[in-house]
Every structure is written in C-alpha cells, then in structure tokens.
Amino acid sequence: MIGGSTIEAELARLAPWANPAAAITPDERDARMDRACRFTANSGADALLVNAGASLRYFAGVPWGPTERLVAMLLAPGRKPVIICPHFEIGTLQADLAIAAEIRTWQEDEDPVALVVDSLRSMGARTLALDPELPFHFAERIRVAEAVRLIDGMPVIKQCRMIKSSAELALMQQAKSMTLQVHEAAARILRPGIRQSEVEHFIDAAHRRLGASGSSFCIVQYGEATAYPHGLPGDRELQEGQLVLIDTGCRVEGYHSDITRTYAFGTVSQDIRDIWNVEKEAQQAAFDAVRVGETCESVDYAARAVLDKAGLGPDYALPGLPHRTGHGIGLSIHEPAYLVRGDRTPLAVGMCFSNEPMIVVPSRFGVRLEDHMYVTEEGARWFTEPQHSLEAPFG
C-alpha cells in the first residue's frame, strides 16, 4: 500500500482513461445562457459582462485566462451574445468558441472599453451586471463613460455555476477518479530519502499518463511541514516514522479535482493516531450534515462540533481547524458557495464541495483528509471513497 514500488513501474501501469466523460453540449450551453439572461433580468440589469476566465469558459467554451487585454462577453436577454476580443486573436477565438455569437474586435492601438460602451448603447442597456473578476480599471472606465449604471454580477454568475448538471458531475467524477488513482500510485513509490520534488514530478507525469494535461497543482509535505495547510518551502527527504501529506488535482475539460491524503510512512506516535481519528470523524460529520435546504455554514458547524468535543479549537484556535471546512468546486478550484460560518446559502441539489476540516498541531504535524461530495435529494454523495485508515489509505 505504502512503498514497495518504483516510479518507472507505476508509470508503466497507467494508461489513458478508458471511458472519458462527454464534453458539454451546445444545448447545455444555450440553457446556461438562458438562465443567465433570466437571472440578469431578475437582478435589475439589462446586460451581463463576463470576463475571460472560468465564467467565460462556462458560458462560451472559451478556455482563456484573463490578461491585460480585454476579452469578454456581453449577454443580454433577447439578443445574440457579443464577444469582444483583440483582432489578432480572432482565429483562435473562432476555433475555441462553442456558441453562436457576434464577434467584435479591437486593434492594439484602440480602446476595447469604447467597444463595450458602444455595444451597450446599441442594446439600449442602462444597467450592467459586472463579472467580479473583471479588472477594476476596465470597470472604472465603463463607469466614467456614463453609459450605464453598474451592479455586481456575482449573484447572477453564482446562481448559474453553483448548481452542476449531470454532464458537469460526470466530468468532475472523471477528474477526481483520475487523481485518486494517481494518489494510490504515489503512495507506492515512497521510500526513505525520496525528495518532495521527485514525488511532485511523478504526480504530474502520472496525471499526464491518464490523459490530463498534468497536475493543476501539487503539495507534497513530510513531517512537521504537514502542520502548514499549504506547506513550507524547501525540498525535504522522507524519513521513517513521518506523516506524509499529499494534496493534488487535475482538470478534465476545465473541471477540477482536489484530493488530499495524510498517512504514515512507518510507525507514528499515538497522539498522531488520535488526531487522525478525530479528523476522520469530523469529515464524516460534515458529510452527514448535508441536507437540502440547510445552510452551508451548518456543515462547518457539524465538523467543528467534533473538534470541540475532542478539546480542539475553539473556532480557528490551534490545535484545531484553521480554515473553513470546505469550498465549492467546478471550473474554478475554489468557487461559491463555501462551507464556512457566515455563508447562509441554502444547500441545493447539484452543489459540489470539498470536505476538508484539517487539524493542525502547531510546529508538530497536521492532518487533512480531503474528498469531494455533491448534494442530492437524499443528502451528500461522495465523488471519491474517503481514506480508510492511517496505515491503509486506499483500503
């Protein structure tokens, strides 16, 4: 289970995913834009401006990240979407674009905001809902132009992206299943003296062998470094009797996985075992608390109640849980809603969350078990089977 193999042997065992999930269909994208238009109108806005990034990919299939050049989509009820992009990018845009849209381009010495303002005026829009990921300087220039009143577009985008369709769930399931298989392989290559960087490079290569474009991120920590939620700098060598914490993920059609395992390499002390068991109980309590109509924060409360009973915390005090119990996930690795005190978003069918109530014992060790779950009418359902035990993390 832990150790006993080699990097070469484990890579040789991996092959491209046999039954890849289907891509998002044009009909589903049309339905997404219809919902966005409806939510936009309900918000009091006449149009929604979506910046390059995860939300533009969600609606239009364009997998571009934001840069200093404005790339965006204007979406208005009853009108064809308008995509605004640099003229020299038009060929790439047309190849990536998964919806029917009007494309309006700007040259390098032209002002793209003027193109946005002109488009809004031609639509007769008076109120514009803005993607919260639009850079401030673009938003401010739209405001100064006095073409429209600006409002926050987060509620519109959140309502659309929070609830995953069956097609989205299938893509996420594939990503998470792939990463769990990589985790299992990574555990088998461990040996005394192996560096963190060697494990990280293996995990990236293993994701590629399964058909992903590599790891979307990777954290490998040993011993005391596990006490830091996102690790410490450096490239440590593994020693007998240390905890191993590995947190990694990949993307399938843009949809993320993000799974953490914490296990022992050799024999560890009883207090580590006790904390591991509390972590396991807290993760299960969070899972059991998921009910349609309950608030997101109620799941965080359930996990913390287990920690309080064990004498940890309270709140964010250490030893204890230093962060929220979980986050939404989809085309962004962290997205609304959040399993944290103060997020009173009602749980609804199709919401997806990480479940990771990490326990940190400062300057000694940390334990994080992270799996993902989605909301059904009957409660939560796991994407991946949680860790079995400290010594046998994969059953």
UniProtKB/TrEMBL annotation:
Residues 32-163 form the Creatinase N-terminal domain. Residues 171-377 form the Peptidase M24 domain. Keywords: Hydrolase, Metal-binding, Metalloprotease, Protease. PANTHER family: AMINOPEPTIDASE (PTHR46112), AMINOPEPTIDASE YPDF (PTHR46112:SF3). It holds the Pfam family Peptidase_M24. This is Xaa-Pro dipeptidase. SUPFAM superfamilies: Creatinase/aminopeptidase, Creatinase/prolidase N-terminal domain. PROSITE patterns: PROLINE_PEPTIDASE. InterPro entries: Creatin/AminoP/Spt16_N, Creatinase/aminopeptidase-like, Creatinase_N, Pept_M24, Peptidase_M24B, Peptidase_M24B_aminopep-P_CS. It comes from Novosphingobium panipatense. It comes from the Bacteria. Belongs to the peptidase M24B family.
